[in-house]
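Need the bound structure for zinc ion, inputs here:
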Amino acid sequence: MKCFCGADLNLNNVYFSSGEVDFINCSICDLVIRKEFPSNSELKKIYQNSYSSENIVRNSTNQCSGNYSDTVYFNFINNKLEGYDNTVLDFGCGTGHLISLLKPFYPKSYGVEFSKSARKFSLEAYKLTISEDINNFPNEFFDFVSAIEVIEHLTDLSSLSCVLKKIKPGGSMLVTTPNRNSFRALIEGGNWREAKKKFHLVLFDSKSLHYHLKKIGFVDIRQIRFSPVQRPGLKFFIYTRLTQLLGIGGTLCFICKVPECKV
Ligand SMILES: [Zn+2]
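Answer from helper R.:
Posting the output first, comments after.
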């Protein structure tokens, strides 16, 4: 079995000693990767169940960031963009809530989502037509792409190479993913809830995320320490900021750019 970096994986290099023991650690790029991926049809089924209308309404899809986080992400993206004319993509947009926030300010906001039921919901709830495949967009089309809690689901990081091609030279991408060195992960080990989700196929720390973004061809890769928090309130704000400063925050947030002149 090969890692996303191309190295051969040592199947004995099990990452967690208890709980979820199906992850192995790559000795080259330090990625933690699920030993056996669910098949495409199994994944389709998992997402269909997660995005059932009952789960969407109950906000228990296990996929959506939640309205509060989306507002924080919206503010972050809005600060990065220059004007009304900017073209934005939310890659792996789930039910499209973030796009619904962006659309009034950035009419050229689009989404890509693998799950059919999530796409159906965004059409009904927000009148958004979401694309199944990023290749439906022309190359060098977007000024800004967000990939929020998406990369841990990808069966192949080459999808991010496709994303890179669709961004204009000098354009940016915001990437977030659960931090496998987070306080919770360190305490819970193989019982960490993010490791137990069967659709989480890879687990990153800041080093392996940086490695792969660079390998794909992104430049100016920076970790955002003061990244979005998940719930309102001073207690959460302090907890989130403090754990992020210590490198043990729940979410890794990176911003990176596409080179001005693509090689
Ligand atoms: Zn590797």
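Comments: The domain at 23-257 is CATH 3.40.50.150 (Rossmann fold). Residues 67-80 form the longest helix (14 residues).
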